[in-house]
């Protein structure tokens, strides 16, 4: 991909004539604007282009190739961080955003109890699965539409936006009607047909790293969504498979600063799926904040021993209260707020 970098004072008219020229050549223009600077990416195959042709257009500063395999997600395309605004929450800003809630929406009472409690404790966004990817087809696979309705009621009561997973392209419209952020789970990170579908939306996407995926593969999956036209992608490090058996997965903590260096997209850490054990959730959450994550996603339950999924890694409600208090002081120490 090639990017056209506009001069700092380029006018709207100059920018639109560059866009027009890009389209005439058969490329798709992708605009990035921030800190007074405009960069226009040229995506797709078009006619051979003559750099001089562009350099002579008014307002153009330079033409630069993006060498990395990920383009629109790269810092070369957009230097300043992407901020994703959902309701009154900003992901990718100064505040560490806490997403919390049960692994699965199990009942109205369970979800409302958890939502009220975590909201009191200061959580920003409510999570909960209505469509659950389960290893066994005999395990609880979620309440489906009824679960989405419960999440919507919890949002109405607390004001917290909701993040929930979509498992298949077939359910995208339905989940979109309810969710504020759509989660693509680790198992679907490379479901390219699904990525194409959600790329057509503008709704924010929480993209979880695949169980056996490299950092570059995660960024390439994000690229599918960005190239489809949806600029609102949040990356999530949730641990990868390794030979280690003391934890459910192995949290790749260095992935956070690496992703932040390579990409302008916000990055969050999921300490629950990373460890599989509630005792490890607080220390690993602290590590995530310390290393620069833009947020955390923590499974929390009012009665984890009876949870229908992921009880062993779910914090109790009092444990979640303690974690929030603890992280607030830690965030201050690393120049963030919570
Ligand atoms: C989840 O968030 O409950 C979940 C299934 O996560 P992952 O896709 O990371 O396993
Ligand atoms: Mn879970």
Characterization of this structure:
This protein is of the alpha/beta class and 338 residues long. It has two domains: 2-65, Alpha-Beta Plaits (2-Layer Sandwich); 84-333, Alpha-Beta Barrel (TIM Barrel), CATH 3.20.20. Helices cover 35% and strands 19% of the residues. The chain contains eleven helices and 14 strands. It has an eight-stranded parallel beta barrel, surrounded by six helices. Helix 5 (172-178) links the parallel strand 9 (162-165) and strand 10 (181-184). Helix 3 packs parallel to helix 4 (145-158), helix 3 (108-121) packs parallel to helix 11 (317-333) and helix 10 runs parallel beside helix 11. The longest helix has 17 residues, at 317-333. The chain is elongated, with a radius of gyration of 21 Å. It binds phosphoenolpyruvate (PEP) and manganese (II) ion. Phosphoenolpyruvate binds at residues 103, 129, 133, 185-187, 208, 238, 273.
């Amino acid at each position: 991909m090639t990017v056209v970098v506009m001069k700092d004072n380029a006018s709207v008219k100059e920018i639109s004539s560059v866009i027009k020229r890009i389209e005439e050549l058969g490329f798709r223009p992708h605009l990035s604007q921030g800190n007074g600077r405009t960069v226009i990416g040229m995506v797709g195959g078009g006619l051979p282009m003559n750099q001089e042709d562009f350099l002579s257009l008014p307002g153009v500063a330079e033409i630069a190739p993006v060498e990395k395999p990920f383009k629109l997600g790269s810092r070369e395309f957009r230097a300043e961080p992407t901020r994703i605004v959902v309701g009154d929450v900003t992901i990718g800003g100064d505040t560490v955003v806490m997403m919390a809630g049960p692994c699965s929406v199990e009942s109205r009472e369970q979800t409302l109890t958890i939502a009220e409690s975590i909201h009191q404790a200061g959580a920003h966004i409510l999570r909960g699965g209505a469509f659950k990817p389960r290893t066994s087809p005999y395990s609880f696979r979620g309440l489906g539409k009824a679960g989405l309705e419960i999440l919507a009621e919890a949002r109405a009561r607390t004001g917290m936006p909701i993040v929930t997973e979509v498992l298949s392209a077939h359910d995208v419209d339905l989940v979109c009607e309810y969710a504020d952020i759509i989660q693509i789970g680790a198992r679907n990170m490379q479901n390219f047909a699904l990525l194409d579908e959600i790329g057509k939306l503008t709704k924010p996407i929480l993209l979880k790293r695949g169980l056996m995926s490299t950092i570059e593969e995660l960024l390439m999956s994000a690229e599918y969504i960005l190239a489809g036209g949806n600029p609102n992608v949040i990356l999530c490090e949730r641990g990868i498979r390794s030979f280690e058996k003391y934890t459910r997965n192995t949290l790749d903590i260095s992935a956070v600063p690496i992703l932040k260096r390579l990409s302008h997209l916000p990055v969050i850490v999921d300490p629950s799926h990373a460890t599989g054990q509630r005792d490890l959730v607080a220390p690993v959450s602290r590590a995530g904040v310390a290393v620069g994550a833009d947020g955390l996603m923590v499974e929390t339950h009012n009665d984890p021993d009876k949870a229908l999924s992921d009880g062993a890694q779910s914090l109790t409600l009092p444990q979640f209260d303690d974690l929030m208090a603890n992280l607030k002081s830690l965030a201050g120490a690393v120049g963030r707020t919570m």
